[in-house]
Design a protein that fits this description.
Bound molecules: 3-acetylpyridine adenine dinucleotide
Protein name: FAD/NAD(P)-binding domain-containing protein
Pfam families: FMO-like
Cofactor: FAD
Organism: Aspergillus keveii
Oligomer: single chain
Largest sheet: 8 strands, mixed
Number of helices: 17
CATH class of one domain: Alpha Beta
Structural class: alpha/beta
Radius of gyration: 24 Å
InterPro entries: FAD-binding_Monooxygenases, FAD/NAD-bd_sf, Flavin_mOase-like
Helix content: 25-40%
């Protein structure tokens, strides 16, 4: 039987990329009393839970991995953009090399945590878990990621549906056989695009319910021969060094020219080259005013429009998937990467419903299917909810008993005043708690492993400095948090990002405060600002 009141120096929540990076870095610095509590049954975070059909990472495998030599020198991805299955194989490999699980308890859900700050108290965290245990630790590190809390929209009658309802982030373990079936996908974000690409080819009939068109870009997928895999692997040390120097942690750098500084011919050739390159290059290596000037942005949109509309044969579907007027500035909301997404709508078995058209909103789910406001009923056997996550904040506020030193829960605090952190790494009222890949860090605007490595290094250096200087704890001041948030908002307001209803801005969840949840200044600036603070604990109370 597990000990009822275990105690560690450092407790981490979550065993995805951040938890593993932190644990490995802590071990390297001699911290042996570390434990990870992970609610899932294996390592991998979102990659463990996202098993929907067609699931694939939308970052090139070469940069979407840890820069740990003993790990990367003994593994290579077989495709440019690896499948979720191969990412799970990668995590199994990480386990074989680093023996992570010896410090992990799987199937353990943290339900609450509180730091006893009183002078007569222990000045430690008391962490509650669903199995009834209370764990004590000096440092608590949240590695819960951005997408721990799935979002299910409140659709009347959903529970009355007689067929199967599956959320992309909680897919039935045995999969869903849709052969000969009538199926629907609600949502056209990254998950929806990938499910649609798979199901269109397998199901008897697929109905896609789209609210906002996805300005999806070509993935330009490639299979790697063993020779190419070897070449990619040999180049990794350079790749890892380079990714830390760019704004996003991807290798692409913005073109210093502005959109209209160059001739129309040159511009067209540049757009064409980036489109052919695939992935985020179209934005990240685009002209420098792409995300700051609406006319420039429209020029990039028009190029995408021309390319995309040429692939869709039905004029009605063409206008819904790639409308002449942009739904939002290109790049202000996350574009997915597609392989043959738009071609699926040329198939006779694929219907498209524009939820923004009068009468076409979803009225209710009936036992036999989905009814739209105009009374049309779409008969269905399976409904896929690809409706995303209460991103970033939701991963923390879903821990019901996570509360500050005064006993107020984080969920209450942030519901009232919006999110607040210092550096995206710490939070007032939560002494000695650190956040990784979380609210107000580079998170969703970065290549995960790249920003995680910067934050993990900072967190471990902060813990070492606390130990070396004999401090009990550190805690950010209210003023420091306010200044950090103001900095984020100031940079955000210089861009077109607020003009899109995106999960970057918390705008995908009804009732959630609309505010920027990521640091938009880029990795080099972020790292520099965080490192400077560490020199003298600027913005922290030290006890
Ligand atoms: O979620 P999303 P996701 N009625 O929030 C729609 C990462 N990821 O799971 O755009 C009808 O992007 C919503 O519509 P709208 C990646 O970072 C990565 O797809 O809000 N529709 C939208 O179309 C990604 O960005 C990978 O108008 C409703 C969709 O549901 C992030 O996770 C794979 C609705 C939600 O899209 C999230 O992606 C998967 C409603 N009531 C995910 N509510 C890879 O790396 C919401 N929608 C491959």
């Amino acid at each position: 039987m597990a000990e009822q009141t275990p105690s560690y120096d450092i407790l981490l929540i979550g065993a995805g990329f951040s938890g593993i990076t932190l644990l490995h870095t802590l071990r390297q610095h001699g911290y042996t009393s570390c434990r990870i509590y992970e609610s899932a049954g294996d390592l991998g975070g979102v990659w463990h839970s996202n098993t929907y059909p067609g699931c694939r990472v939308d970052t090139e495998g070469s940069i979407y991995q840890l820069s740990i030599p003993e790990v990367y020198s003994t593994f290579s991805f077989s495709e440019k953009y690896p499948s979720a299955d191969e990412v799970r194989e990668y995590f199994a490999h990480v386990e074989r090399v680093l023996d992570i699980k010896k410090d992990v308890e799987l199937g353990v859900t943290v339900t609450g945590a509180w730091f006893d700050v009183s002078a007569e108290g222990e000045r430690k965290w008391r962490v509650e878990t669903a199995d009834g245990r209370v764990t004590h630790c000096r440092f608590l590190i949240s590695c819960v990621g951005s997408s721990a809390q799935r979002y299910v929209p409140d659709i009347p009658g959903l529970e009355s549906f007689q067929g199967e309802v599956c959320h992309s982030a909680d897919w039935p373990k045995g999969g869903v056989d849709v052969t000969g079936k009538k199926v629907a996908v609600i949502g056209t974000g990254a998950s929806g695009v990938q499910i649609i690409q798979s199901w269109a080819k397998e199901a008897d009939n697929l109905v896609v319910f789209q609210r906002t068109p996805n300005l999806a870009l070509p993935m330009q997928q490639e299979s790697f021969s063993p020779e190419l895999q070897k070449k990619v692997q040999e180049d990794l040390p350079r790749v890892f060094a380079d990714r830390q120097k760019t704004w996003s942690g991807y290798l692409d750098e913005s073109n210093p020219a502005k959109t209209f500084d160059v001739s129309p011919e040159e511009r067209e050739a540049h757009f064409e080259a980036l489109y052919e390159q695939g992935g985020f290059a179209f934005y990240l290596a685009g002209y420098s005013d792409l995300l700051t000037d609406e006319t420039a942005n429209r020029e990039a949109y028009n190029f995408w429009l021309k390319k995309t509309r040429a692939r869709i044969t039905d004029p009605r579907k063409r206008d819904i998937l790639a409308p002449l007027d942009p739904p939002h500035p290109a790049g202000a909301k996350r574009s997915s990467f597609e392989q043959d997404y738009f071609e699926q709508f040329n198939r006779e078995n694929v219907q498209l419903v524009n939820l923004r058209e009068t009468g076409k909103g979803i009225k209710a789910v009936r036992p036999e299917g989905i009814e739209t406001e105009d009374g049309t009923v779409y008969p269905l056997d399976v409904i896929a909810l690809a409706t995303g996550f209460d991103s970033l904040t939701g991963s923390l506020t879903c821990i019901p008993g996570l509360r500050n030193t005064s006993g107020v829960t984080l969920a209450e605090e942030w519901a009232k005043d919006g999110a607040s952190t210092y550096l995206g790494l710490t939070r007032r009222g939560y002494p000695n708690m650190f956040l990784c890949y979380s609210v107000h860090g580079p998170a969703a605007l970065s290549n995960g492993p790249a920003s995680i490595e910067i934050q993990a290094k900072w967190i471990v250096d902060a813990i070492r400095k606390i130990d070396e200087s004999g401090l009990s704890y550190i805690e950010p001041t209210e003023e420091a948090e306010k200044t950090w948030k103001a900095t984020i908002n100031m940079i955000t307001d210089m861009t077109l990002i607020p003009k899109a209803d995106s999960w970057y801005m918390g705008a995908n969840i009804p009732g959630k405060k609309r505010e920027m949840l990521n640091f938009p200044g880029g990795l080099p600036m972020y790292e520099q600002m965080c490192r400077k603070v560490l020199e003298n604990w600027e913005g922290f109370v030290t006890v």
